[in-house]
Amino acid sequence: MSANDNQTYVGFDTITQQMERKFLKRGFNFNVILVGESGMGKSTLVNSIFSSHLVDSQGRRTAQEVIRKTTEISPVTQTLEENGVRVKLTIIDTPGFGDQCNNEGCWVPVIKYIKDQHAAYLERELKPQRDRVISDTRVHACLYFLNPGNRGLRPLDVEVLKRLTEVTNVIPVIAKSDSMTVDERTVFKRRIKEELAFHRISVYPYASDEDDDEDRALNASIKELVPFAVVGSEEIIEIDGKSIRGRRHGWGVINIFDEGHSDFVHLRNFLLRTHLSDLVEVTAQRHYEQFRTSQLRQIKEMRAQQAAAAAAGQSGMPAPSVPLPHQPTMAQA
Amino acid sequence: MRQNNVADSGAIKKKMNGYVGFSNYPNQVHRRSIKRGFNFTLMVVGESGLGKSTLINTLFESKVYPGRDDSAAVGAVEHPNGVEISSVTADIQENGIKLKLSVVDTPGFGDSINNEESWKPIVENVESRFDAYLAQENRVNRSKIVDNRVNALLYFIKPTGHRLRAIDIEFMKNLHTRVNLIPVIAKSDTLTPREVEQFKANVLADINYHGIQIFKPVSDEYDDPETIADNKDIAGKIPFAVIGSESFVERADGTKVRGRQYPWGIIEVENEQHNDFVRLRQMLLRTHMEELRDTTDVALYESYRTQKLLAMGHVQDAAVFREFNPRVQQEEEARAHYAKMQKLEAEMSAVFQQKVQEKEAKLKQSEEELHSRHKEMKAAMEAQRTALEEQKRRAQAAMPVPGTAEPMYQTQPRKDKKKLFGGF
Question: Å from B227 to nearest chain A CA?
């Protein structure tokens, strides 16, 4: 359809503009969870990506403070606006993760939180009278922070990544990569990719049949960079009259926007400029649908069991509305 | 000129008139120890990837430690057995001085998911070295004693920039009374100078809060002011923030130095502005090596020995030094034996008495019970008897004597009468 042919021009190509306007009016939600030990640079990285102080570091402030015994979940919600587009951004920090001597099960609160958000959405979807727009609190992206300097994945990383990738989009990141030279970085990334393949852990972006060549090329270049070796900073430094965001050492200044210094620009573009809507979509289509299927199947089985019990003459009392059976046990999580 | 100064020990301090020559004694000791050679055992502890092997090799400027094997299979669990202890010994020589250096590595520390017991194998290893030395000391023939006690322990702290982690505190609390603990901030090139200051202050605050004793160089009154100043300088830098490198990089002016090359600059290992490596090396090798060995022998080993012997039940028995008299000893034994027998007897009779009392009480109780039951039964029987008698009386009173009653109507057969009166 050529737009300048008045007789045959229908005009449905303006739908993109209509959608854009609706989107601008409505705004959208974006939820990111940060998983990593304390001191990995999570808060600084998030503050650098969004160019504003969104989250405070949750490390211990004094010697008297006790080390957390379990992983806590602390979500912080803010509304950011840029060029008329409003985003309700929720950053979920996980202080206490991996900080104890015995880290068995430190991932359980994290998995439970992610599943709870899916469950809340499902509940609202299943209501007879639904809200017009269901507020989306599902976790769209998970930044998993790796330790620079290890040879590859640690046992804790393997355990947690296996479970996280089943419920959300996981993006592995090395936040304090200024302790690795360029060669060390290359070796480390290669090793991580090998280990991820070995353990069959699939991180975002996933390949899908709908991709065209452009998408595939973009995804390939992203996959090359995984895990992103970034440096975060909240400080603005002046060198040669220009102000840049970076870190000043005694032997040099790191500019986090310099592609030779770190993958920060690539990560930010990937997260916000190219794959933002994809992250939201994949969460809804892949992870949420998986969760929904398993939940509904469980409900069906429960109902069948109760019907069988009632038929057998026992005092089976089928509840009028079956509550969602989602309760992650240690075995599930 | 003779001066009679009474010093603290009560000895008289005298000044001499000429050169006697006993000031040459340290040189004699020096020559003898050179012939014997020295040994030094250094233990390194820290999670994998913190640069332990690189730092050791940098410290001793030779490939003492082979480091990790990068060709290991993907996906293989690195340390399935938890913490291992592996030791490497090297004989190195410098200016005619022979040093037998042992480096004990602890691969697997802090690498599992559950690291609660990570410190135990290390404590056991340190204590077993003390035990071995103790056993050698107690031998009859002590001419050849091999000393492989741990002289210093370098603990590598992850440069998070925050505070000490749970595993760090746990480890240090369990080890600080057994070794000279030297905490080191590994891979410190990830921290800016300001962050290093802050991190050091936080680490020291945590260490003080938990009462952990780390090795600190102290000066005493015999040191010259230069040494005192040096010691203070070193002490101020603890914990040392270091980097290590086995490779050389080229500086802008063409010189080659040990360092690491980044896109944003070069960090030099031996540059004091860049990191504290030089200070660590100075303290460990150049100034305080003997102090470390001495503290191990005098303070740490002795306290371990005392604790162990007391725990084994040894008492500081002054009788050991008296002469051994068998007759006196026999009499003592007989007396002790007699006293013990007496005590036993008293105990047994007490127990016997108690048992007798108990049995008596029980028997009395059962007697009472039987008594009361007997009474009850008797009462019940009486009641029954009176009831039956009453019945009998009533029956007799109701029943008219045959022939005396008024024949109002014809006498019915007996069973009808029964019915009229409601039948009994």
Answer: 28
Q: Could you tell me the end-to-end alpha-carbon distance of chain A, in angstroms, rounded to an integer?
A: 52
Tally the domains of chain A: 1
Contact of A66 with chain B, judged by CB distance below 8 Å, is answered with no
Report the Cα B7 to chain-centroid distance in Å: 43
pLDDT at B57 over 50: yes
Letter for the amino acid at B352? F
* Nearest-Cα residue of chain A relative to residue B46: A150
- Residue B360's domain comprises 326-366
Domain shared by B31 and B56, yes or no: yes
CB contact B159 to A (< 8 Å): yes
Taking CA atoms, B332 is separated from A94, A203, B322, B329, B346, in Å, by 71, 82, 15, 5, 21
Kindly report the CATH number assigned to the domain that includes residue A262. 3.40.50.300
Mean pLDDT of A220-247: 86
One-character DSSP codes across A163-176: HHHHHS-EEEEES-
Q: Is A59 on the interface with B (CB under 8 A)?
A: yes
Residue A325 lies in a domain: no
- Asked if A146 and A154 count as a contact pair (C-beta separation under 8 A), the reply is no
Same domain, B150 and B221: yes
- Residues 6+ away with beta carbon under 8 Å from A8: A1, A2
pTM: 0.76
- Does B357 share its domain with B246? no
Of the partner residues A38, A67, A155, the one whose CB lies closest to the CB of residue B77? A155
pLDDT digits (tens, 9 = 90+) for A174-206: 988 888 888 889 999 999 999 999 999 988 888
Task: Tell me which residue range forms the domain holding A95.
Answer: 24-52+69-305
- Surface of A (172-201) touching B: CB under 8 A: 176, 178-179, 181-182, 187, 191, 194-195, 198-199
Instruction: Supply the mean pLDDT for chain B.
Output: 84
Longest dimension (CA), chain B: 166
Give the pair of three-digit tokens for residue B22.
Answer: 């006993």
What confidence tens digit (pLDDT) does each residue in A131-186 have? 777 788 999 999 999 988 778 888 999 999 999 999 999 999 998 888 888 888 99
- One domain for residues B223 and B141: yes
Indicate whether this complex's ipTM tops 0.95: no
- Do both B25 and B61 map to the same domain? yes
Query: What CATH number should be reported for the domain holding residue B157?
Result: 3.40.50.300
Q: If contacts are CB pairs under 8 Å, which of residues 60-79 in chain B contact chain A?
A: 68, 70, 72, 74-75, 77-78
The confidence band for B409, taking pLDDT boundaries of 50, 70 and 90, is low
- Render A250-281 in DSSP notation, one character per residue: TTEEEETT-TTT-SHHHHHIIIIIISHHHHHH
What amino acid occupies position B122? I
